[in-house]
Amino acid sequence: MNNDSPDDIHTDPTPTRPLDIVQSTSPTSADLGDAEPFSETWTQAIKVLDEELIGGPRRLTPRDLAKQLGVSAVSARKIWRALGFPNIKADEKVFTQQDAAAMATIVELVRKDVLNEETAISVARSIGQMTDRMVVWQIEALVEDKMSAENLSDPVARREVVRMLPSVIESLEDVVTFSYRRQLNSALQRLTVRVEAGLAASEEGRDGTEDDAPLPLARAVGFADMVSYTALSRTMSERTLAQMVQRFEQTCAEIIAEGGGHLVKTVGDEVLFNAETPEAGADIALALSQALSEDQVLPSARVSVVWGRVLSRLGDIYGPTVNLAARLTALADPGTVLVDQLTSSVLADDERYILIPQPPQSVRGFGPIHPSMLLRGAGDGIEVD
């Protein structure tokens, strides 16, 4: 993995041996004492939790780690950074045998020609970035729960979360493993098995000259953007703002999931989603607009949906379809859904939708476009619990 030696993992002569991954078990309340389960000081709790999470004593320097993996120090450092961790001083004992075992797994995928080095680093980076966001989300959710349920200040709530984490780690880890396999299966269907049908459908109404024609996936791409978020956020306390953002994301995530779509990402006051058919995208967009307009806490939203082709990379989607959907969102009035001309033509003969042409708009990067407002026609659309 050295830049000067692209085949470093294959050619390094240092032999490697199978490594035993240290299995960890979380202490129960009985282990910590029934009468006072969290009687240790916060510093002691941190130390106990640290040892629990890293899976053993820190005995390996970067040089030791590289030697055990049978790769150069540069290669080992690239894997470590890809997983989302900072560089370590050459003589600092930071790594455990569990670290070495996990990184050896990545090395072996390359050594056995299952993955090339670039792909292995990309996969490692996906794991690092996603788990980083996941654990931050989980810790903040637990802190918020402590603050609300026990009326604690933020610093006290954080100390309490440190003390209670050992009792939930195994449960969370089990759910993460379950979710990974389920999500992998779902993505396998979405990104491979059902692709051809979507591409065939995306040709409807096209003449083959569109900018997105070469892109590999057909998707309905939509945005929902909270109205006046910036102005509202300036008047809110940190806690109230956090509750509003959490409510917005939770509402959107439930509707998108219920409609069979995929929440690509949330950026503050905006969510980006996609769906496999224009109809599913339209139903999700309409349900989002309605739910946010009727919510007594959240502001209404501007929503758009565009049917076209996209490139899926790094857990995100790219291409003119995404850009056009973003531009349409900015043009939509609060509480409405806008679609472009192609999406309108695809949905026009479906009695479940009403399309009202809007005045032409000049959109940066696209020139004149002819948007339509999307309304619910026959049927009830997505039913949200």
Automatic annotation (TrEMBL):
<dbReference type="InterPro" id="IPR029787">
    <property type="entry name" value="Nucleotide_cyclase"/>
</dbReference>
<dbReference type="InterPro" id="IPR001054">
    <property type="entry name" value="A/G_cyclase"/>
</dbReference>
<dbReference type="Pfam" id="PF00211">
    <property type="entry name" value="Guanylate_cyc"/>
</dbReference>
<feature type="region of interest" description="Disordered">
    <location>
        <begin position="1"/>
        <end position="36"/>
    </location>
</feature>
<protein>
    <recommendedName>
        <fullName>Guanylate cyclase domain-containing protein</fullName>
    </recommendedName>
</protein>
<feature type="domain" description="Guanylate cyclase">
    <location>
        <begin position="220"/>
        <end position="329"/>
    </location>
</feature>
